[in-house]
Amino acid sequence: MSVSIVLPCYNPPQGWAENIVHQYGVLSASLQQPLEVIIVYDGISKEVKGTDLVFLHDNIPGVQQISLEHNKGKGHALRTGIAQANGDIIIYTDIDFPYTNESLHKICSALQDNMCDIAVGVKDAVYYEKVPRLRRIISKFLQFFIRLFLSIPITDTQCGLKGFKADIKPVFLATTINRYLFDLEFIRNASKSGRYRISAIPVSLNPGVHFRPMNYKVLLPEIINFIKILLR
Fold first, then answer.
1. pTM here?
2. Do β-strands 118-123 and 89-92 pair in parallel, antiparallel, or remain unpaired?
C-alpha cells in the first residue's frame, strides 16, 4: 500500500529541509513501499529559502511543494495538501517530525494491517513530562471537556500525528476549522457517521522537541471553534 505523508510548514526550524530528506530516507527504507511527500508552505516565511526548495526537489523523488500566499492555519494547509495526496494511506505530522520513527510505523501498520480506518496518535505518559506546563494544562482541560460534552471514542484529539485510509479523505476535506481544532472536528465527524473504525495509537516524542508558546490570541479563537463543534 502506497503512503502519502503531508507536512504543513510555517516558520520551520533551522535545518528543516535536511531533516525532511533524512526522514524520507529512513521511512522509505523501513516501509519498503512507495512514499509520497507533500509539503504545504502556509504563507510566506523568511525561514523558507529558494535553496531549501531546490534541495528538497533534488533529494525527494516526486516531492510536491505547495505554496499558499497567506497563512490561514494548519487545518487549511493540511486540507490543501491532503486534497493532492495519492497514497492508499495518508499520514500527516509536523514539519520537524516530533514523533519517533517507531510511532510513525505504528500508525502506518495499524492501517496496513486493517486494524482500523483512522489511526489517531495519542500521547503517552512521558509526553506530558516534556511539554511546557501551560500546554499540559490546556491539553488536559480540552480532554475533560471532550469527555463531558462529546460522544467520541478518543478524547486526546490534538496529537500531531494521524493517518487514515484514502477513502476517508472526503471526511477530512469536509472539515472547516482552519487552526488547531480541525483534528477534533475531523474525529467527531468521522465518529458521528458510524461508518469508520477509529483506533488510538500510543506515540512517543523525540528528545529535544521545541514547543511554540501558547497565548490568548491562539486560545480565544479555539474556544469559539469548540463551541461551534458542540452546536453542529
1. 0.92
2. unpaired
